[in-house]
Design a protein that fits this description.
elongated; alpha/beta; four-stranded parallel sheet
């Protein structure tokens, strides 16, 4: 499985969690890289934190599935990380994230809510 867009190693290179491939040159390179990954035998590609229209372009250029993490609605599938969704990780707050609970604060409050019986 390939992984393009925001990748863990790119954080150190770019120093930010900003959306990747917003400029034409980087977007064209991402599409070319996706095609190369497909040709190399990748069975699917994760597209992380890229513009939705680019996610659509990549998906249309490939025959293998694309899985999005903040890559818009035009990819073949979506990933939502459990720790992010449940609010266990408090620092990471991308705008595409839907947080359904705030377990971080609830867990910290547990000792205060437990009474000895």
């Amino acid at each position: 499985m390939g992984h393009l867009g925001l990748t863990p190693q790119s954080i150190y290179k770019f120093g930010t969690y900003a959306v990747r491939a917003t400029e034409d040159a980087e977007a064209d390179k991402l599409i070319k890289d996706a095609q190369l990954l497909q040709e190399a035998g990748a069975f699917a590609i994760v597209l992380e934190k890229i513009p939705a229209q680019l996610g659509k372009r990549v998906s249309e250029a490939l025959t293998i599935p694309t899985i999005g993490i903040g890559a818009g609605k035009y990819v073949d599938g979506q990933v939502l990380v459990m720790h992010d969704m449940l609010g266990i990780n408090k620092e990471f707050k991308p705008r595409f994230l839907r947080r359904y609970l705030n377990l971080y604060d609830e867990i910290l409050e547990l000792p205060n809510n437990i009474s000895a019986t």
